[in-house]
């Protein structure tokens, strides 16, 4: 399994590190436009191999896409992150051009690749890759829900006073401060609905804290987060590499599923060797449906800013 990660910045390097540490890929290529940067990150990471016990070969490339040839999975993290006070949507002007150019270059050298889009605004960047590359829909996957769900579980565990491993939950909808739909009704502690343990008010607080998870970290760090984003991507790449058929909420092109059309937004999907193996159309309550529709309207509005 060969994986390319475009962008050797905070998120790209974290993705490469977690993929390597999990030791399921033979090769990871990191590519960046900044001279020597990807080579430096790759060398630094390779010098952790004997310490962390992995055999994945990590190499770096300054914008030379021939080095990425025949990648099974390509992860796009290139582009600018937000600063405190900004929304992800404000990044569209710069990131759309980068994602369009990068995805075309990747596919030129790896026509059979599966692409995972991370750059923000992620749902719109995923849609852009659909509109401009012609790759089949199962091979274009946006990463947002896996991260948002991890943050949801963190907040749930905090509210419950429980270990995170005892908690399960999922966030669907757009990867934006307003658009996320944490499914509190379906969240559990060891199979028991979380509503058995905490009040509606506390659960509402968990929901709100989850939705602004990225903004909270951006406020603390001065730029957006990277550890959990990198770990979320590595989990998705592992599911594809090992054909696990695990369910992740991912941004995918909807063609009538959940009553939505012509946009990419986070819904539960099965990940395996073909990328998105299927969309899991779970039953939503009326309130959840209307939150997802509102979220979709927000994503479509951002999509309309693309010059297609
Ligand atoms: N979908 C999600 O859940 C998340 C998305 N993000 C997004 O990921 C992106 C990257 O964030 P960070 O790594 O923190 O930013 P960063 O600034 O640390 O790294 C971005 C890298 O992209 C490189 N780059 C820019 N244009 C390029 C091009 N044309 N070709 C190759 N490389 C290029 C830059 O040189 C830089 O090294 C941002 O758009 C951020 O908003 C971040 C966290 C989570
Ligand atoms: O908050 C941001 O801008 C980066 C991101 O998407 C996240 O960490 O969820």
What would you call the structural class?
alpha/beta
Q: How many beta strands in the DSSP annotation?
A: 14
Mean pLDDT over the residues: 98
- Global outline: globular
User: Order of SSEs, N→C?
Assistant: EHEHHEEHEHEHEEEEEHHHEEEH
Total of DSSP H or I helical runs spanning 4+ residues: 10
Widest sheet: strand order?
3-2-1-4-5-6
Bound molecules: 1,4-dihydronicotinamide adenine dinucleotide, oxaloacetate ion
Radius of gyration from the alpha-carbon trace, in angstroms: 18 Å
Q: In whole angstroms, how far apart are the ends? A: 33 Å
Keywords, separated by commas or semicolons:
308 residues, alpha/beta, 10 helices, 14 strands, globular, binds oxaloacetate ion, oxidoreductase, Malate_DH_type3, Lactate/malate_DH_N
